[in-house]
Amino acid sequence: MNSEKRVSIGTGASAEYEATVTSPVNIAVIKYWGKRNTDLILPTNSSLSCTLSQDDLHTKTTVRCSPKYKQDRLWLNGFEEPVVPTHGRGYRCLQELRQLRKVIEDENPTEPKLSEYKVHIVSENNFPTAAGLASSASGYAALVQALANMYNLTCDQTELSKIARLGSGSATRSVFGGFVEWKAGEDPLGSDSCAVCVAPETHWPSLRALVLVVSDAKKGTPSTSGMSATVSTSTLFEQRIKYVVPERLKDIKEAILNKDFKTFAEITMRDSNQFHAVCLDTYPPITYMNNISIGIIRLIHMFNSQVDPETNAPLGVRAAYTFDAGPNAVIYTEESNIKELVSIITHFFPPSQATSLKSYLPSAPSLFDIPAL
Ligand code: DP6
């Protein structure tokens, strides 16, 4: 997260305060899907993700408060939202942070009363919103961090992750960089449902994420309603929560700490597949992947079954796919495989003329646009 300290504009009683934060998206390898408390956004299972480099997919949010502002206002990707709904998730995050600011003001009467000022929020994603690329994760993480900076709050990232959670479950994890676990917790009030850093981004420098944009259309079934339907109708889901996820979490954390790509990749692919299986087991079924997504799955398994042309020895598991609530793929691999993988992907899925291959940087996640069927 690129988080700037707040700046003040003007002095005295008319001063305005502003902060800007850039927050990257995170891509789950053990998926969060299901809430045990929909109001407090408490998940049915712990989840784990990698926060991508913020040079690529991110949300940039600027917040400003002023004694002159008459109401809270929000601009998303250049358009103003008609009203900031006071029952909405963003408003809830704002109110939580205002409360924390008020504590500071009550303790220090000389502090300006920012908790009483209205706030203007300008937020922009540099990638398709709501196309299953975790835009709510980076969006709420950026909002919460920017407000915390503007209010000069001293709470740590773990505390902020709980407030980001009230915006969107996956945002809990975007508050940290690197490999992040969102611990489901046990407290019915959610005091222990927060993010923890499993390993920093510097831990596994050869790991890469390629983002294959299959479609930038808004997703059909929003995550919130989709997971609620799964919890109430899928029988497979119960098995996943009870018997599968706890073991997988333990094993993938170990694989990350040991930089064991094969285990990391196998668990990542299996968990993505099981998440989409419980979506299909939801009644009526939810389908997020399309034929191109399935083609990408086949291609990666083909890539992983290649043998050395000279020795005939298997080259092993060198890439892993994962899909969130949309058809777009994220491929995890190691830097040494990038060149070969990119040439195979672009051979089978040539980038569309209109959108072309976007910024391929070996040191950062890359975006490819794949023409839809
Ligand atoms: C498939 O965080 O968007 O990306 O908490 O209802 O806002 P809400 O859901 P959201 O769900 C993300 C689901 C997922 C898996 C994941 O990121 O773990």
UniProtKB/TrEMBL annotation:
<comment type="pathway">
    <text>Isoprenoid biosynthesis; isopentenyl diphosphate biosynthesis via mevalonate pathway; isopentenyl diphosphate from (R)-mevalonate: step 3/3.</text>
</comment>
<dbReference type="Pfam" id="PF22700">
    <property type="entry name" value="MVD-like_N"/>
</dbReference>
<dbReference type="GO" id="GO:0005829">
    <property type="term" value="C:cytosol"/>
</dbReference>
<dbReference type="InterPro" id="IPR005935">
    <property type="entry name" value="Mev_decarb"/>
</dbReference>
<comment type="similarity">
    <text>Belongs to the diphosphomevalonate decarboxylase family.</text>
</comment>
<keyword id="KW-0752">Steroid biosynthesis</keyword>
<dbReference type="InterPro" id="IPR036554">
    <property type="entry name" value="GHMP_kinase_C_sf"/>
</dbReference>
<feature type="domain" description="Diphosphomevalonate decarboxylase-like N-terminal">
    <location>
        <begin position="24"/>
        <end position="195"/>
    </location>
</feature>
<keyword id="KW-0443">Lipid metabolism</keyword>
<dbReference type="GO" id="GO:0005524">
    <property type="term" value="F:ATP binding"/>
</dbReference>
<feature type="domain" description="Mvd1 C-terminal">
    <location>
        <begin position="209"/>
        <end position="373"/>
    </location>
</feature>
<dbReference type="GO" id="GO:0004163">
    <property type="term" value="F:diphosphomevalonate decarboxylase activity"/>
</dbReference>
<dbReference type="InterPro" id="IPR053859">
    <property type="entry name" value="MVD-like_N"/>
</dbReference>
<keyword id="KW-0547">Nucleotide-binding</keyword>
<dbReference type="Pfam" id="PF18376">
    <property type="entry name" value="MDD_C"/>
</dbReference>
<dbReference type="InterPro" id="IPR041431">
    <property type="entry name" value="Mvd1_C"/>
</dbReference>
<keyword id="KW-0753">Steroid metabolism</keyword>
<dbReference type="GO" id="GO:0016126">
    <property type="term" value="P:sterol biosynthetic process"/>
</dbReference>
<protein>
    <recommendedName>
        <fullName>Diphosphomevalonate decarboxylase</fullName>
        <ecNumber>4.1.1.33</ecNumber>
    </recommendedName>
</protein>
<keyword id="KW-0444">Lipid biosynthesis</keyword>
<keyword id="KW-0756">Sterol biosynthesis</keyword>
<keyword id="KW-0067">ATP-binding</keyword>
<dbReference type="InterPro" id="IPR029765">
    <property type="entry name" value="Mev_diP_decarb"/>
</dbReference>
<keyword id="KW-1207">Sterol metabolism</keyword>
<dbReference type="InterPro" id="IPR020568">
    <property type="entry name" value="Ribosomal_Su5_D2-typ_SF"/>
</dbReference>
<dbReference type="GO" id="GO:0019287">
    <property type="term" value="P:isopentenyl diphosphate biosynthetic process, mevalonate pathway"/>
</dbReference>
<dbReference type="InterPro" id="IPR014721">
    <property type="entry name" value="Ribsml_uS5_D2-typ_fold_subgr"/>
</dbReference>
<keyword id="KW-0456">Lyase</keyword>
